[in-house]
């Protein structure tokens, strides 16, 4: 649709992708997305913020050149180097070999390996700034939002924050500004969904980033996906703050979540007893059936739990499918260093339990007890042992607090 003036001498020069159905091969994008890029024109110099996805390079460069030739741009600022923000970088550098590529220290190796030849580049860090003449860009290194390279760029005179994926949304509306959207509530839902799919594992980093930008005036947020935010900005900032605070270390209770799959009820019998054992301690326990309970509810509880127990039968030498679904959904959380354990019933070989333990270890969870397993239907004696195992696990979790 071409360049859009967002303020005097500041232009959106991105690309709309309304047809996109899946992002990064896993995230459904029912409202498409946008790849935002911004051009800031100072009295002396010009800076482009973010490159774009490679397959839109031609359209992207055409849009930039509605404002000024690429050859006249002095800087390209890469807040983050995921290919949807850096894919067009080689084409920009090809057209303008003198352009100075600006990135965070951690980004250098990404940029080197994206351009793959000599280029004019510079790493910046907190407090560095670039004077374009009446427009000053300053930088905040905000790692892991959501890659180690991420930084925010802030335009001091206009109070505009360019935070890349942070505060973004996969939402395509040609009206661009959040105060002009056709369906504001739908866009806000897309914003919340984007947070839960992309930013949710990085809570500590979100809180650190807020500390860094504390006190700066933000009149407009120009993220790299979705609407430009210039109305109701506090809503967006507060949503991130509240969600980042929803963390197991902030839970007033010590909590364990049990999730099981069961084909014939044997693993569920163990789960019930393990729960009883935990309840003999002061630890709060939540229990879910991975096949029938709502996966978002399960993830919400694991998010604020200090311990996670997963029960699976062995089916054809593997864990049960609902347990694999759970593993796939855990991608939105960082569970490293929390306590975990595996249990289950099996018939003859028991790989499902071992597989579950291996995944928990790979996610860098701590397994204080060996897995609890029984052959086929648990006996009364085994059920008592399951209860004791649950109690012991709860005590291990309490020890860790
Ligand atoms: C389709 C199917 C495949 C199975 N494959 C295995 C297997 O490869 N190894 C094993 O130890 N048990 C296997 N079993 C046995 C189950 O793990 C065992 O019956 C267990 O008690 C089921 O627990 P549940 O009632 O919690 O589903 C299989 C059972 C079914 C129904």
Automatic annotation (TrEMBL):
<comment type="similarity">
    <text>In the N-terminal section; belongs to the zinc metallo-hydrolase group 3 family.</text>
</comment>
<feature type="domain" description="Flavodoxin-like">
    <location>
        <begin position="256"/>
        <end position="394"/>
    </location>
</feature>
<dbReference type="Pfam" id="PF19583">
    <property type="entry name" value="ODP"/>
</dbReference>
<dbReference type="GO" id="GO:0010181">
    <property type="term" value="F:FMN binding"/>
</dbReference>
<dbReference type="InterPro" id="IPR001226">
    <property type="entry name" value="Flavodoxin_CS"/>
</dbReference>
<protein>
    <submittedName>
        <fullName>Rubredoxin-oxygen oxidoreductase</fullName>
    </submittedName>
</protein>
<dbReference type="GO" id="GO:0046872">
    <property type="term" value="F:metal ion binding"/>
</dbReference>
<dbReference type="InterPro" id="IPR008254">
    <property type="entry name" value="Flavodoxin/NO_synth"/>
</dbReference>
<dbReference type="InterPro" id="IPR029039">
    <property type="entry name" value="Flavoprotein-like_sf"/>
</dbReference>
<dbReference type="Pfam" id="PF00258">
    <property type="entry name" value="Flavodoxin_1"/>
</dbReference>
<dbReference type="GO" id="GO:0009055">
    <property type="term" value="F:electron transfer activity"/>
</dbReference>
<dbReference type="GO" id="GO:0016491">
    <property type="term" value="F:oxidoreductase activity"/>
</dbReference>
<dbReference type="InterPro" id="IPR036866">
    <property type="entry name" value="RibonucZ/Hydroxyglut_hydro"/>
</dbReference>
<dbReference type="InterPro" id="IPR016440">
    <property type="entry name" value="Rubredoxin-O_OxRdtase"/>
</dbReference>
<dbReference type="InterPro" id="IPR045761">
    <property type="entry name" value="ODP_dom"/>
</dbReference>
<dbReference type="InterPro" id="IPR001279">
    <property type="entry name" value="Metallo-B-lactamas"/>
</dbReference>
């Amino acid at each position: 649709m071409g360049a859009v003036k967002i303020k005097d001498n500041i232009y959106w020069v991105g690309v709309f992708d309304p047809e996109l159905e899946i992002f990064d091969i896993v995230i459904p994008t029912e409202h498409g997305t946008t790849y935002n890029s911004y051009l800031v024109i100072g009295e002396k110099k010009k800076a482009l913020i973010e490159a774009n996805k490679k397959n839109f390079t031609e359209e992207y460069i055409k849009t930039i050149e509605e404002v000024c030739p690429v050859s006249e741009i002095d800087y390209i600022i890469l807040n983050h180097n995921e290919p949807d923000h850096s894919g067009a970088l080689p084409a920009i550098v090809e057209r303008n070999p003198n352009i100075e590529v600006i990135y965070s220290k951690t980004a250098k190796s990404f940029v080197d390996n994206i351009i793959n030849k000599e280029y004019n580049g510079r790493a910046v860090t907190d407090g560095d700034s670039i004077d374009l003449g009446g427009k000053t860009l300053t930088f905040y290194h905000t790692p892991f939002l959501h890659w180690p390279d991420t930084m925010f760029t802030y335009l001091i005179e206009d109070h505009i924050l360019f935070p890349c994926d942070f505060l973004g949304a996969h939402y395509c509306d040609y009206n661009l500004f959040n105060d002009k959207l056709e369906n504001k509530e739908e866009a806000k839902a897309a914003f919340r969904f984007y947070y839960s799919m992309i930013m949710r594992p990085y809570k500590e980093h979100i809180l650190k980033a807020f500390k860094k930008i504390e006190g700066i005036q933000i009149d407009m947020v120009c993220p790299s996906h979705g609407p430009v935010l210039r109305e109701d900005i506090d809503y967006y900032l507060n949503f991130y703050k509240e969600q980042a605070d929803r963390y197991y270390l902030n839970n007033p209770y010590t909590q364990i979540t049990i999730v099981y799959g069961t084909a014939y009820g044997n693993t569920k019998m163990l789960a019930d007893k393990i729960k009883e054992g935990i309840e003999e301690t002061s630890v709060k326990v939540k229990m879910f059936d991975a096949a029938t309970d709502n996966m978002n509810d399960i993830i919400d509880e694991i998010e604020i739990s200090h311990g996670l127990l997963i029960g699976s039968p062995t089916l054809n030498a593997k864990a049960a499918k609902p347990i694999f679904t759970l593993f796939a959904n855990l991608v939105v959380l960082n569970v490293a260093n929390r306590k975990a354990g595996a249990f289950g019933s099996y018939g003859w070989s028991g790989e499902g339990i071992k597989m579950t333990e291996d995944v928990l270890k790979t996610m860098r969870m701590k397994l204080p007890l060996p897995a609890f397993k029984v052959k086929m239907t648990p006996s009364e004696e085994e059920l008592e042992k399951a209860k004791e195992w649950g109690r012991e696990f709860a005590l291990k979790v309490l020890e860790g607090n």
